[in-house]
Fold these 4 entries.
Entry 1:
Amino acid sequence: IEVLFMILKSYKLYICFFYILCFFLLIVSAFFDLNINVLLNNPNSVLAIWIRNTGEIPARLILPLSGTCLFYICEKWTSKIFGISICFGGSIFLGYKIAKYFYVEENQIAFGVLTGVSIAIVLIFIGKYITFPKKVKNILIIISLCTIVGFFFENVIVEILKILWGRVRFRDLLQESDFTSFSAWYIPNGINGNKSFPSGHVAGAGLSFYMLLLPYISPHWKNRTAICFIIPFVYTAIVSFTRIVMGAHYLSDVTFGAIISFTIVLITLFTIEKYLKKSLCTYMSHDLLEFSYF
């Protein structure tokens, strides 16, 4: 427990780097948001189109995976029912997103649901053969619940900000051949139907930072915290770049989207650390009681 309790501290440098970088990008975008889009705009980019279709997959996998964990780890049937419901619901949602981008319009919803149900069945089948040490199970339950809550919070926060900010997308400005509707990221425009700020794709991709939780689950990752940060950081950066290239978002949009998801992940880390600290205190108190008894 004491070793696990030190994991958050090992991320301190990466956390500082992330927020300092985002702060710098927001300052840059306050002056050059529009110029950057004019320079990078290429909506026909194959990479950008592919990322548009797949960039949110990390976020869409959260519910199926967390639901599967709860189904197998929890002992109460009510918890198991909750877990399998989350697994199938999340998988169907994932199937719908896959169908939206990769299936033809005819019977798209039906095939999306079928794809989602198939994903859930596969996960339930695979989960049957995966075992975890007893000491990790409680942490896994907390992680699963936190990631489920984090997923919903990320979607709600992003959608509320999109509606309230009412920022016009760059590609819409191009269609009008008029940049007068452009507004800086720090100026909310109110409810007007435009939803550029912040980027939902990047916020979804940013939930890949849940990879920071791997050291809490497996000893194999305890000395690989750098990898746990670099992989989701690079992935989120790629998604961010392609969203700008597509003309769907500005630099400030993608930066704020990343901030939202990274902050949600950090809240999960703090929650786990709080649980571990409480467990450590309980463990030490138990030892003191035994010592007093003898």
Entry 2:
Amino acid sequence: AEYEGRGRLKNHSIKIKRTFYRKVLTNNCKCNILRLDEGVISMYELKRACVYTRVSDDAQGEPDKVSLPEQERMGKAFIESKGWEYVRTYTDNGYTGRNTNRPALQQMLSDAHSKQFDAVVIYKLDRLSRRQKDTMTIIEDVLMKSGVDVVSLSETLDTTTPWGRAMIGVLSSFNQLESENIAQRTAMGRYATARKGGYAGGKPPLGYKAKDGKLVIVPEEAEIVRLVFELRGQGMTLKGITDELNKRGYRSKKGNEFKHSAIQTILNNEETYRGNYKYGKEKTEKSHEPILKKD
């Protein structure tokens, strides 16, 4: 083998005779070793690598969603193929990529700052974020400043190369555009549902539950709603209604005592309780069974 400088091979991979199979060669650089496979000596960089995985809980938001176990499997396989040391997997299950308020992501960034690994492997760039600004901040201002490289398997993005670093901005721009298009299509679909008298999504108000795209009455909750409007009709204040409900042992959907704001929300939803549904600018009359009958 021909050497260049102290302890470096001129070529990353050279063929050798089978008689040299049992020899173990190392160079003088801490982060590189020479590994012998099938009669070929290859140079491998010794990196400590982690895997980051994420899925959203909104199936409509990720039509091509790849499961968390599959994301992890592919990440580990890549790390093994590079001869790197696998450290751990950070997983955010059911978190949107439109912000960075994710526990596993924040833990990973903290660990990167404390030099616990040298590379992050992700299935796709949008696993980090669907917003270009956040993506650039995570990669350039946190990971790369901490000496951590990023490898994206789907985009063949590797920040250990100049080309990979140059492609970060381009790819994150397309991810943000895709995210905005998905959000627009989702909103259009919900408006269309509302126009047809269906339930467009979101948290149903007290007294109802969503079933088969419609609002269906929950009897024990409907009793609370009727009482609220009855007491209000008697001239009782929000505080008075709140105290009365809690005194009688009524509880919210989550099993908590009522607060003034919850009572105000019930009163604000009068149209819904009369069988009319409004979603944004779309309003449909007699779209579901009313809790409050006409006076």
Entry 3:
Amino acid sequence: FWRSPINFMAAVVLLVGSTVPTAAHNGAVAHAPALEGIVIDGDLSDWPEDPQWLPITHLEAGIPVNGEKDLQAWHAIGHGEDGTVLLIAVRVEDDVWVDDPNTVYYSQVDGVEIYVDATHDDQSSQFEYRGSHYTVEFSEEAAMQRGENTQTYEWRIPLADLPGAAEAGIARLSSEHPVGYDVVVVDVDQANQRDYSWVAWGRYPSKLFSTGYVGDVYPVGVDSDIGTVEASLHWADGTAVRRLQVKMGEAGGELTWSHQTDENGVLRRQLHAGSYQMAVGQDTMRFTIAPDSVS
């Protein structure tokens, strides 16, 4: 049965205060801190104790995930060597591990896909684990480790070696050259079946062929026109409204984005400056993210 949430609070917070050139892409934005001492071995113990773990939750192809036991995944990103390399970590919790040495087809084995577009207007490069199999694409390093119902992955990706980077003079991550970026986790629960879940950090499929379908990554501390809207939803008895789909979109337009509250009933979304609206049931709220202001 349906209970209407009575506590719907939203705050719009501007993360930083001035505008720099940005690309629209799919709206997902990450801020990468400078990191040192990261060894690419699949062991994440050399990462900071409190990295910004970004949830990977958008089902863009295949069948829905069957609850948290079936699949949960997060990623974190930083940069190293004066911004010339991206450092990426992915954590996956999965109750069934499917690996087949005879196939690397994406819908037949568990896997992780990383997409990077150094120039913001070229085709993304794809770096992919298919089960325990990995093929080096350029000069990147990659590693994974498996535990009980968990997998951890790491990448070190030099930006200058990506397609188009040398021609565009892009050697490092900067405010002038944010990088297109996205992460996908593929979950397969039974070998030799067609059922799979293709779950992404940012919205939209076809990330390899459409650079507008990936997110953006900036170095930490860079001013940009990115802000954050945070909404907290609770039932009449005070319990959190968990896993509720909230519709969002540009003000005056269609509600084309769908975002899910977490286990605490909180939805948090980074957006470029502009006017937006969100809807929960029959309730609609408009809000604005503007440079040099907090709403």
Entry 4:
Amino acid sequence: SPTGPGLTDPERLESAIRQLVQEANAEVGDRYFPALVRSLGGILGLDWTFIGEFQRDCQRIEVKALWADGQFARPFDYSLEGTPCETVVGRRSCAYPSGVAERFPQDVVLAKRGFDAYVGVPLWSTKNEPLGLLVGLKRSPLTTPSLVQSLFELFAARTAAEIERVGSLEALERSYGETLAGLVDALELRDQETSGHSLRVVRHAVQLAEALGLDEAEQQAVRWGSVLHDVGKIAVPDAILRKPGRLTEEEMEAIRRHPEAGYQLLRSVNFLRPALDLVRHHHERWDGGGYPDG
């Protein structure tokens, strides 16, 4: 594939732009960010490339995706103060072809990592508010800084749109999740015998997930599955759920249907799909008993 040093050749430049557009446009949402930084870093011959989201309340940048020295690295957050990014966010594109560490001595990462060149392009929201930035770093001087800056600017609007889209989706998911959690609380008010049960399940399940070394996405699935595991009880009549005495076999059968009812209720909610098995199978047993499949 074309690399940074050869991009002054018109044919290689055209090929590079085509490759960048194809690779970046192949992904959407959270998958777009790593795809873009990998493509920009590899094709332009940059040592580090990252997308950062501006946290206005604390004047910090939260890195959403980082391509560092030929591989993905763990994202981090940092203060804007004293960094070249401070000259970019909410302002304008900046390129420092060489000597960036000397120009910004307060930014210890630049000197520690040996960076010499910097390119940063601001990202703006649809309300024309500062949203973040797209950054490239190199340990040797940039021979074509204006070209690299122009290519970064080519992807700025799409990157900003994806950040806003993901943020809106996350807010929607949180709102929907809180609504469902509120529904579970209401269900527990119907069933006085299990008041506080879901919170206890969440606490123990998350502790177990952490002990097992599950990653953050898996832990989040465990968290949602625990919160919502009994949501299917909405289909169980009050007369059964609150019955003080022993249940008949027919009434027990109604209780046994609640995991499947919860699964059916949640299956159309995309972000809850990783948690669906927990909802449907939380009454199964290690010996193959339990329900609904035991």
